[in-house]
Write a structure and sequence with these properties.
Layout (H helix, E strand, L loop, with lengths): L2 E5 L5 E6 H10 L3 E6 L6 E5 L1 H18 L5 E6 L5 H16 L3 E7 L8 H14 L4 E10 L2 E8 L19
Parallel strand pairs: 1-4, 5-6
Antiparallel strand pairs: 1-2, 3-4, 6-8, 7-8
């Protein structure tokens, strides 16, 4: 006769019992016998309200999903002869996207005779990389595709120097 390790509805160990006896015990309390660890020898079952258990599991799953962040690819388009103010404005946007943990694709578009001066575009890309070096790393290096020069950067992973209690490890002890 198959046997299972039974855990009571209050969390206490009941012991190893035959399956029929464990089911009868659960039915006497108007609860369900739920297999919690099928790979253990003998399998572990718990006396609990299965509907409540499923509800708790779905709540945990929703909470975990809420904390997830989906990374988007944001695109910033520029021209090689971009004015300084426009450049600063677009870099501010890039920083906002990177701080929101999104990837940023920089696209530099060439028109007409600008194609003969692609070095201006490469210098602009180098300037962007230098300015964002503190918060981003280059994921896809600059490459020329027809009349455009593209590069993708992603934000650096957050620093792991934060303690569990939320205090800064570098702060003076109080």
């Amino acid at each position: 006769m198959p046997q299972v390790r039974v855990i009571g509805d209050d969390g206490s160990q009941v012991g190893v019992l035959p399956v029929r006896e464990a089911l009868a015990m659960a039915q006497a309390k108007n609860l369900d016998l739920v297999e919690v660890s099928p790979t253990a020898r003998p399998p572990v079952c718990r006396i609990m309200d299965f509907g409540k258990y499923k509800y708790e599991q779905s709540r945990k799953a929703r909470k975990a999903k809420k904390k997830q962040h989906v990374t988007h690819l944001k695109e910033i388009k520029m021209r090689p002869k971009i004015e300084e103010h426009d450049y600063e404005f677009k870099m501010d946007h890039a920083r906002q996207f990177l701080n929101a943990r999104d990837k940023v694709k920089f696209t530099i578009m060439f028109r007409g005779r600008e194609m003969a001066h692609q070095d201006i575009g490469h210098r602009l890309i180098a300037k962007i990389v230098g300015e964002l070096a503190d918060i981003a790393t280059v994921e896809i290096p600059a490459r020329s595709e027809g009349r455009t020069l593209t590069m993708v950067v992603m934000s650096k992973p957050p620093k792991t120097g934060v303690r569990v209690d939320g205090k800064d490890p570098g702060a003076a002890a109080e």
